[in-house]
């Protein structure tokens, strides 16, 4: 069983994409709001029935029902509003995530946890510290979402097929993220040989700022994060050994310790099976350091 805690728009989208990919025959939507997860479950089941997909979605307000879950996705928390940064949510969501993770420890102690609540990297750190789980079992969604946006901007700039594009984003899931143009390509052709430096710099800045634009125009990001969550779940369930940038606890990698931040990792049936350390140049190292400093500053303000 896969459990998604938080049945708002992103949680429901994650359940939708997870069901469509048939990643488990049971999906549990959990929420403290009475009737919300039950209503979402009914709606999803009606859609799945028409498509002939034998995945059962259940809704509940009872944490004990997530017993035996293999994967628990944590979306619960206050969402980002227009004009807010992800860090503005820090204090609001720390208490929520701590309570959720305590319940995961109690009812699904053998699960893996995919934090999604913003600010992503500090909340993934909260999940890691409060759960006491080994670090391979906690991996946050952030950079997988950033990557989907980066790919779209590369597609728009080059007009090449999205399926031909390989790209990478690391660091904080926020304004200091590091879209790596030097490690991105189109059908094996380095992106740096296809676009000028000015255009590459514009891609990076657009990727960093686009979430705020989406939120300003429609109030929330929904479909892209829902899909990003399902991509990570799929890598675990199908043991794909897929390289995905996820927020995971670092212990010396990239020169950082006691911090949870986005890095490329091999994701398979055991969660984070390997952290890949890239040979960054000085400019990239400096950018990653700024990202780490932002996350460390947030973590230092946490009461965990």
User: Unreliable stretches, pLDDT < 50, 5 or more residues?
Assistant: none
Q: Could you tell me the number of beta strands? A: 13
Average pLDDT works out at: 95
Going across the biggest sheet, name each strand in turn.
Answer: 3-2-1-4-5
The gross shape turns out to be globular
Structural class: alpha/beta
Outline the biggest β-sheet: 5 strands, parallel
Using only C-alpha atoms, the radius of gyration works out to 18 Å
Elements, N to C (H/E): EHEHEEHEHHEEEEEHHEEEH
Summarize the structure.
The protein has 304 residues and is an alpha/beta fold. Helix content is 43%, strand content 19%.
Structure, described:
The protein has 304 residues and is an alpha/beta fold. It is built from eight helices and 13 strands. It has helices at residues 9-20, 36-50, 90-107, 120-131, 142-158, 197-218, 223-237, 282-300; strands at residues 2-5, 26-30, 56-60, 71-74, 112-115, 165-166, 169-170, 178-179, 185-186, 189-190, 242-251, 257-268, 271-275. The strands form four sheets. The chain has a five-stranded parallel sheet, with helices on both faces. A three-stranded antiparallel sheet has the order 6-9-10, with helices on one face. Strands 11-12-13 form a three-stranded antiparallel sheet. A hairpin with a 2-residue loop joins strand 9 (185-186) and strand 10 (189-190). The longest helix has 22 residues, at 197-218. The protein is globular. The model has no long low-confidence stretch (mean pLDDT 95).
């Amino acid at each position: 069983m896969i459990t998604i805690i938080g049945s708002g728009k992103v949680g429901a989208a994650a359940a939708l994409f997870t069901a469509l990919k048939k990643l488990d025959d049971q999906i549990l939507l959990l929420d403290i709001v009475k009737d919300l997860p039950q209503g979402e479950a009914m709606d999803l089941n009606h859609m799945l029935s028409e498509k002939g997909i034998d995945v059962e979605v259940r809704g509940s307000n009872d944490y004990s029902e997530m017993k035996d879950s293999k994967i628990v996705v944590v979306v619960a928390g206050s969402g980002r509003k227009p004009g807010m940064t992800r860090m503005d949510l820090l204090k609001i969501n720390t208490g929520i995530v701590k309570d959720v993770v305590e319940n995961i420890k109690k009812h699904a102690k053998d699960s893996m946890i995919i934090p999604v609540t913003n600010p992503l990297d500090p909340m993934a750190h909260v999940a890691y510290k409060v759960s006491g789980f080994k670090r391979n079992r906690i991996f946050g969604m952030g950079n997988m979402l950033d990557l989907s946006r980066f790919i779209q901007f590369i597609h728009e700039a080059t007009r090449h097929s999205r399926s031909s594009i390989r790209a990478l984003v690391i660091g904080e899931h926020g304004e200091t993220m590091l879209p790596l143009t030097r490690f991105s390509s189109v059908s094996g052709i380095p992106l740096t040989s296809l676009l000028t430096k000015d255009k590459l710099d514009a891609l990076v800045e657009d990727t960093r700022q686009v979430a705020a634009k989406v939120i300003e125009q429609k109030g929330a990001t929904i479909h892209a994060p829902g899909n990003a969550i399902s991509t990570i779940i799929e890598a675990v369930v199908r043991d794909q050994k897929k390289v995905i940038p996820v927020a995971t606890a670092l212990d010396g990698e990239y020169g950082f310790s006691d911090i949870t931040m986005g890095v490329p990792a091999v994701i398979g049936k055991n969660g984070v099976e390997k952290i890949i350390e890239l040979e960054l140049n000085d400019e990239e190292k400096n950018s990653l350091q700024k990202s780490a400093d932002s996350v460390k500053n947030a973590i230092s303000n946490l009461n965990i």
